[in-house]
Amino acid sequence: MANYTVPLFVLQNERRQVYRQRKLLENLSDFEIIQNCGMPYWGVRDLIGLYSSLEGQYSTAIPLETKVLTYMSYLRSGNFQWSMGSFSGTSQKSASRIIEACTNITLDYSQGLVGYPPSIDEMNVLKQRFFTYGKLPNVIGIIDGTHVLIKAPHVDEHIYVNRKQSHSINVQVVADMDYKFLDVVAKWPGSTHDSFMWKHSSLRDRMVTGKLGAGWLIGKLKPN
């Protein structure tokens, strides 16, 4: 009986798992970090610890640094998620999940950070800081507004178009001498005028009713 040798075939079209190059802080220049994240190296490094709960969430193949870089670059540019994934080395699907998770963490964390001091003594310290710097008495904050660009919504799209013909959310912010947010209003569409936001803000009500004591806000006068 003849002996037969069974040939061994190697599949040349075998699919191989390809991993994208993950972006880490140590691989980026100072210019790239500021350009894509809006802050220097040390600022991004300090923020990474805030999102440490993401370490074991979603894809464990994506380092925590990469997840934070994805989120920071998204906030910096307001661009589509696929371009954010291109910068950080993640897919569009992963970038979407990362952005959602980081946003939830940011909102939870901000609850204890944004707000006026609860006591009179702390309010007096706030006023003293402004007086020491600018010699203006009873100043309790600096108020300004900014437009945060968004993707055109499907519902009531026209009311989100601002005066520069871009889609945005008009945001009102009050900060102290240390750039800490004291009050934030981020619910009005881009077509809303700053004066309308102020008249309908809870901060104005608290100042009018004296709940914040005697004080002034410093702001830039804008035309109607």
Low-confidence stretches: 6-19
* Main sheet summary: 4 strands, mixed
Query: What is the rounded Rg?
Result: 25 Å
How large a portion of the residues is in β-strands, by DSSP E? 5-15%
Distance between the termini: 101 Å
Helical percentage: 25-40%
Q: Give the total of domains.
A: 2
Overall mean pLDDT stands at: 81
Shape category: globular
Q: What's the number of helices?
A: 8
Model description:
The structure is a single chain. With about 220 residues, this protein is of the alpha+beta class. The chain folds into 2 domains: about 25-110, no CATH class; about 120-220, no CATH class. It has 8 helices and 4 strands. It has helices at about 30-35, 40-50, 65-75, 80-90, 90-110, 120-135, 195-200, 200-210; strands at about 140-150, 170-175, 180-190, 215-220. A 4-stranded mixed β-sheet has the order 3-2-1-4. Helix 2 (about 40-50) packs across helix 3 (about 65-75), helix 3 crosses helix 4 (about 80-90) and helix 4 (about 80-90) crosses helix 5. The longest helix has 19 residues, at about 90-110. The radius of gyration is 25 Å and the shape is globular. It starts with about 30 loop residues before the first helix and ends in a 5-residue tail after the last strand.
